């Protein structure tokens, strides 16, 4: 919004032409909003929820002391993120709106799930089938829209909506054609293959189905991870920072050409929205650090995971999400392996056996007498390593 109102070719407001400046401003703005308004939001949630989020007795030390802690703290994140993103991002860029649409839709679905759990004081929220149906529907609409955006680029290398900065437009005009033209069908309906320069696996219409799986899978993987104080939000910030850099590089012809990655005009602006998420995440962590004053709930985790997934689809780095979001993948896989292994052994032997002491994975380590804070910090360390490994793949081509 400020970009449209104040950006200029010279003077102080010329800074608004730079994605890096607006990204930094988005971090600070979102953090300030989350910290300043987080307290009143928590008070409102506590007064409206009574006994707060239902806590299962998993026989962990200090766990039952968390009873009465309010949930739906994702509202703190969304307030900071949306206000900051709308202030500092170029709202003429359609990538911004599709990302915010997916994020808000999954956050709303998460809120309905949290509300049902709080009211019934059980773990049973919205029906799993209904939830997955809505998730796939929203993801399908977003992927179809993104596919259209990828196919709407002019051969000159910048988008029809004119969302590039003046400097970027000059660079695009001077730059030679990329080896994969932006309006090539393989770009719009293809998936970039890791470690290979400018090659897209042509999926055609199946690209939409592939993108749906990425978004829904990411949303639920982050949801599985959100089980301990601060466990999900910090790895999410690391992943968002990694994708902010990828978005900036992908949307810049010079950097993308140097690295041998696909050039997707307009995607650089996504970095501003991700920066707003990082700032809002830090503000939420202010209240969610152990011992948590509020839980993000599905209101936060579903929206955060979906945001990460749709960004990966938009910048055409879907496979990198498996590495960058490696911690989320491990948490989701632990649940799949636990449930699948139990059903398989019960069918074969008549007695189900569990592979892990408990799933998701963070509970397995708690069952092995790791204190909650040790699990959280070590998982944070792993998330940093996964993010760095994912970024390293940009040059391994």
Key attributes of the depicted protein:
mainly alpha; 397 residues; single chain; 16 helices; 64% helix; two-stranded antiparallel sheet
Give the helix/strand layout.
Layout: H1 2-6, H2 19-49, H3 74-88, H4 94-120, H5 128-151, H6 166-174, H7 185-188, E1 190-192, E2 200-202, H8 206-225, H9 233-250, H10 253-259, H11 270-288, H12 297-314, H13 320-324, H14 326-349, H15 361-367, H16 372-392
Antiparallel strand pairs: 1-2
Helix pairs in contact: 2-3, 2-11, 3-4, 3-11, 3-12, 4-5, 4-12, 5-8, 5-12, 8-12, 8-14, 9-11, 9-12, 9-16
> Can you give the mean pLDDT?
86
Continuous helix count: 16
Q: Tally the structural domains.
A: 1
Q: Which residues form runs of ≥5 with pLDDT under 50?
A: 154-183
Task: Provide a short characterization of the protein structure.
The chain has a two-stranded antiparallel ribbon with strand order 1-2. The chain contains 16 helices and two strands. With 397 residues, it is mostly helical.
What features would you describe in this structure?
- This protein is mostly helical and 397 residues long.
- The protein has one domain (2-322).
- 64% of the residues lie in helices and 2% in strands.
- It has 16 helices and 2 strands.
- Strands 1-2 form a two-stranded antiparallel ribbon.
- A hairpin with a 7-residue loop joins strand 1 and strand 2 (200-202).
- Helix 9 runs parallel beside helix 16.
- The longest helix is centred in the N-terminal third of the chain and has 31 residues, at 19-49.
């Amino acid at each position: 919004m400020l970009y449209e109102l104040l950006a200029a070719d010279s003077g102080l407001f010329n800074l608004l032409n730079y994605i890096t400046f607006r990204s930094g401003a988005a971090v600070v703005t979102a953090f300030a909003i989350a910290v300043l308004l987080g307290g009143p939001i928590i008070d409102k949630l506590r007064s409206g929820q009574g006994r707060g989020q239902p806590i299962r007795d998993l026989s962990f030390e200090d766990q039952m002391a968390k009873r009465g802690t309010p949930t739906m703290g994702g509202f703190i994140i969304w307030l900071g993120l949306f206000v900051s993103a709308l202030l500092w991002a170029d709202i003429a860029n359609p990538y911004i709106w599709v990302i915010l649409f997916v994020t808000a839709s999954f956050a709303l679905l998460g809120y309905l799930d949290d509300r049902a759990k709080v009211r019934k004081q059980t773990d049973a929220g919205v029906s799993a089938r209904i939830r997955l149906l809505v998730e796939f529907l929203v993801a399908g609409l977003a992927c179809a829209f993104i596919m259209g955006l990828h196919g709407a680029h002019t051969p000159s290398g910048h988008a029809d909506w004119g969302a590039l900065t003046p400097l970027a437009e000059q660079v695009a005009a001077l730059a030679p054609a990329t080896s994969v033209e932006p309006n090539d069908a393989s770009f719009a309906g293809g998936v970039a293959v890791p470690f290979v320069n400018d090659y897209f696996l042509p999926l055609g219409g199946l690209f939409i189905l592939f993108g749906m799986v990425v978004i829904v899978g990411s949303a639920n993987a982050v949801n599985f991870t959100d089980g301990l104080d601060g466990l999900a939000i910090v790895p999410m910030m690391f992943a968002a920072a990694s994708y902010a850099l990828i978005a900036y590089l992908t949307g810049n012809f010079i950097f993308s050409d140097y690295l041998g990655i696909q050039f997707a005009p307009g995607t650089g602006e996504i970095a501003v929205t991700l920066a707003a998420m990082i700032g809002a995440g830090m503000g939420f962590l202010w209240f969610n650090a152990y011992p948590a004053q509020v839980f993000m709930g599905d209101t936060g985790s579903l929206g955060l995971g979906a945001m990460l997934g749709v960004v990966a689809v938009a910048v055409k780095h879907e496979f990198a999400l498996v590495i960058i979001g490696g911690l989320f993948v491990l948490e989701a896989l632990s649940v799949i392996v636990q449930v699948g292994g139990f059903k398989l052994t019960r069918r074969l032997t008549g007695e189900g056996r569990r592979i892990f002491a408990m799933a998701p994975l963070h509970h397995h380590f708690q069952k092995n007498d790791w204190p909650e804070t040790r699990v959280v910090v070590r998982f944070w360390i792993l998330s940093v390593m996964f993010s760095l490994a994912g970024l390293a793949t940009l040059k391994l081509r």
